[in-house]
Fold this sequence. Notes:
By secondary structure, the chain is an alpha+beta fold. It is built from seven helices and eleven strands.
Amino acid sequence: MIVESLLRSASDNLIETYLRLGHAIPESRSWEEPAYVACGGTFEHPICNFAARLRLDPWSARRLSDLASGRPAFNVYLLPGDEPSHATELLERAGFHPSYRLVQMVAERPEPGPSIELSRADTFEDRFKVASFMGHQFFTRQTEAFRRKIAIATARAEGLELYGLDERAQKTAALMLCHASGVLGVYNLCVASARRGRGIGSGVLNWALALARETERAVTLQCDSRLEGWYRYWGFVATGKVDVYSLAKRNQDDIIL
């Protein structure tokens, strides 16, 4: 059974990851209020415009709505452990609508299988290459200028480790790790479209699981419901939902994994 403290750690790891990404966007800032922690910036994307760690009442939900209404893009993340139990109702009364849902998953005692060795990107140049590869996998419908801005922010983000796999001098797979709140967060795991279905994704995931086992950490991630079964196969357990709200319908390019 996953203990309550681990559920909170998983949510806190996600929040810390999003804050580190948000802080890497120029002219963005974060602040904390009794009812939520928020990030705001001039870049019109939820990477630096969001609120999380909710402890809502009707008045704070309305303040969130006022904050979001002044921005072209703003996400509110309702995570396991947030309060109150009827936070969904408070957000909807304040004008928010559900945009999408991710499954929060945890592997408390990772048992890694066969893995693929990844290379850590340490210099800005190497981090930018990994981040650019990620951007091309996740933001397929966006412009190159948009993807470049996301890649620069990801490369600049402090405390987020980037790893890649190269084959014949071409980037084949990548992932981002966040060591925070006593757990290892896995984000942006991706494989080049031409190389999918060959076990590379499993090898990358198991490499991260082996790293977590060495450091005696549980592993947390968020995924689309269509991938839940695949992660269950590798020992993950669904621990809750990450419900994302906005004032207007957003497209899939607003999703941060």
